[in-house]
Design brief:
Nucleoside Triphosphate Pyrophosphohydrolase, alpha+beta, 28% strand
Length: 149
C-alpha cells in the first residue's frame, strides 16, 4: 500500500471540503458509495448535504484530503447507496478500504465522545491530535487503537 506512506494524519474540522476531497459518510456499519461502487469526491456529492453537516479532515496527501462528513440523518438518494462496510472490502481497493475502516472507527469515536464521561459537560476538540478534552474536569479521552476483526 504505497499510498499509506504519503498520507499525513490531520485532525481538524473544516468549513467545507474541496472539490477533489475524498468523502466518507457512515450510518452505523454502512458506508455510502456512489452507485454502490465508488468512494465519491466532494464535487460529486456536495448537493446531498445541508448546512448542518460537519466536515472532519482526518488525513491528506499532496493531492487529496480525506474527509468524514458527519450527519444526523440517513441519506436517501437513488445513486448514493449505503453498503455494509465489510462488504465494501470486495468493492474498494485495499488502500481505500483500510482508510474506510479507520474513518468509520474515528467517526464512531467522535460521536460517542462528544460529552465527558466523568462530568457530562461537552468536550472540546484538541487541534494537535485526535482527542477531546473536557474543559471542566480535564478528562482526556484519546482515540483507541483500531482492532482488526
Amino acid at each position: 500500500m504505497p499510498l499509506f506512506h504519503a498520507i499525513k494524519k490531520r485532525y481538524h474540522v473544516i468549513t467545507r471540503p474541496n472539490p477533489a476531497d475524498e468523502i466518507f459518510v457512515f450510518q452505523k456499519s454502512d458506508i455510502y458509495l456512489l452507485d454502490g461502487k465508488y468512494l465519491p469526491q466532494w464535487n460529486q456529492v456536495k448537493h446531498y448535504f445541508n448546512n448542518s453537516a460537519t466536515y472532519y479532515c482526518f488525513a491528506e496527501t499532496e493531492k487529496h484530503r480525506y474527509v468524514i462528513v458527519e450527519i444526523d440523518l440517513a441519506l436517501k438518494h437513488d445513486n448514493y447507496l449505503a453498503i455494509n462496510l465489510k462488504s465494501a472490502s470486495s468493492i474498494l481497493d485495499e488502500t481505500l478500504f483500510a482508510l474506510a475502516k479507520y474513518a468509520n472507527h474515528l467517526h464512531h469515536w467522535r460521536r460517542t465522545h462528544t460529552y465527558c464521561g466523568n462530568c457530562g459537560n461537552k468536550n472540546a476538540e484538541k487541534t494537535d491530535e485526535q482527542a477531546f478534552v473536557c474543559l471542566h474536569c480535564h478528562n482526556y479521552p484519546p482515540l483507541q487503537a483500531l482492532h482488526e476483526n
